[in-house]
Amino acid sequence: MDELLGRKIPHSAVAEQAVIGSILIDPSCVPAVLEQLKAEEFYAKLNRDIYETVYSMFAYGQTIDPVTVLDQMKVRGVYQDNCPDYVAEVMRVTPTAANVLEYAAIVRDRALLRRLGETADEINNMVYEGSGEADAMLEAAERKVYALRQGRAIGGLVPVSSVVQRVFDNLSEAAAAGSRIPGMSTGLPDLDRMILGLNKSEFVLIAARPGMGKTSIALNIALYAAMNLNKSVAIFSLEMSREQLVSRLLSRAALVPSQNLLTGQLTEQQWRDIADAAQTLSATDIRIDDNPTLTVSDMNAQCRRLQKLDLVVIDYLQLMQSAGSGHGWSNESRTQAVSDISRMMKIMAKELNVPVLCLSQLSRANEQRQDKRPMLSDLRESGSIEQDADIVMGLYREGYYNQESENPNLTELNVLKNRHGETGRDYLAWLGEYTSFRDSDQRHGE
Any idea what DSSP says for residue 184? Predict the structure, then answer.
């Protein structure tokens, strides 16, 4: 089509040949090139076939040279009669392998231009076909451009070989990191062992009745990620203002009772502690939006514009609006709206490739039972929330219902659903004056 319109498709045959020639002349440069360049970024099919073959051979520790590469191309079924002559020619015309990363940068740049043109055509066609409302088209356009920025394609069938390679890469990263959990730590070791941390593209739900500490545990996790792990965190608060949230964060970071912080009744030492905590907190990369009318699309659009993002926290699900609607739902349509929202959150987690930690209100069903520990069926207006979430946790504190309980501050964090591991209980200690939690000495049970 582009040729018919007289448009030149962006590519550099010389740079592609120079990359192939360099890795055949000097295989020691292969690891550096593989970090920068993907096979699909080559325009010429033969160059792509050779590069994919080298990629596969490197992954399995095979010797890479012109003879072994040609032989492996036969095994993979991509060998052509002109391959030996072509390999000899690209090695002859490549001046040196020393500049291979510069050649790779040119190939990558031309590939991005091609994808940008294709995306522009897709958006153009979508607009002129009139397939949907303007807001929906804008959302789709932003999603496509974001995928480009992240170096990913939206949809389409992917060969299992490339997925296997990504799994190997993830395993290598995990082994190099030396961590016992693949995901981001919550700062609560016992919980980390159960859920293996917060992993990329996971939709994690924490559900509880009001007053149990949903917001507190979410802020605990966000603060630990930002302060201890140097992560970038986006917090969307539909219930509390930015100032209220930051007051809680300061109370937790400075270990100054939140009541003192609200009233301003602080000792000189507490003022110093707050000042130190404020300086530390200001140096973190935590972003807060307290707009109570946000939709998932709004959140997704804001997150896409961030250069770096590691965790999204949303407080809380039932306060959210579905796109393009207000709050005038009947019970049935509200349940459907919440189901749509939870599904969109899972899609957002996959698209942004970060864990999305969302808080949810429990219905009063557990109040009617003698055992008031939360169950999956207690999720308010649940719809498909429990299906969409990868992990569902419920907070329960006996002291909330019975002030005379033996340990009123002992809190159970019940892992009700865990797509990747075990379910069970973790025990936390509720620090009411700091509106915070820490791991309890009591071990988690089954």
Answer: B
